[in-house]
């Protein structure tokens, strides 16, 4: 019988390049295996295999998904054992803070037969450089899309009633974040609500909020103050002693899209495109910031300008996703070269070595 699973992104292809918050999610771990190695070294396969084994044993598992390929994982955490595994290679480089005692390198690169790779050296170099250029093009396109998104926000920012927005946030905080009497070791974990992937935007909202009773769906337009409201809520929750999960926007990491405080049994999130959801449970509540804080008739007032900017924004975003798809094809080609030079028995051996250490950790608990 399996335990509970949650799925999320800890990194993202954003308008500011690749940004990650992996270390934030490892704060409570006693042991972290950092897998190092090139493409095609089966790092994801090893982590998924180990994670699935412990899930079947009844342990909870956190799956940190890859933005390059959502079916793969960049990390796995087994909270009850305080153990994690992570792909510490580019672009989400993770380095030990307390080497050997907590974090430990695992050299997955030793599974390769170098003599098999040498004849393909020129192809490897060419593909690697093409992939780097490809990501630069992706991020350049997303930056252009962000410029259009900022323009779109500006029309609503001009029409927002900040006093109403502030009062609404204060009232929500007063109703849902009671001051905590006892002292606790509260922590903040930073993640991403969704991610831009070669398959388009992907999120795990339903999974992340499945065990939360009270869900608040924030509706509105860009610039209606959704992120500002969430930042104030997250800050207050932590200051009042609650461990807080903060989910950044996968497009603009400076913006927030969701806050979860499981101890208080609520989640509040931006429920607009590309992660648009609607209440489906009796306890779900919608908060429409457009109707509550924006001057009536704003959509109509700037209709021509808004339509023009939205078109430009969507064009750049679509172009960015297409470029991600092109990069994914190059990565697949590079992986094939490395896969052919991989010793499968070595992968199995590494997997077993790591798992044996986890079993020993379990026995002493």
Automatic annotation (TrEMBL):
Question: What Gene Ontology terms describe what this protein does at the molecular function level?
Answer: ATP binding
Q: InterPro entries, alphabetically?
A: (+)RNA_virus_helicase_core_dom, P-loop_NTPase
Q: Where is the (+)RNA virus helicase C-terminal domain?
A: 218-256
Question: Pfam families attached here?
Answer: Viral_helicase1 (PF01443)
Q: Which Gene3D superfamilies match?
A: P-loop containing nucleotide triphosphate hydrolases
Q: Which domain of life is it from?
A: Bacteria
The protein depicted here goes by the name PRK06851 family protein
What lineage is on file?
A: Bacteria, Bacillati, Bacillota, Bacilli, Bacillales
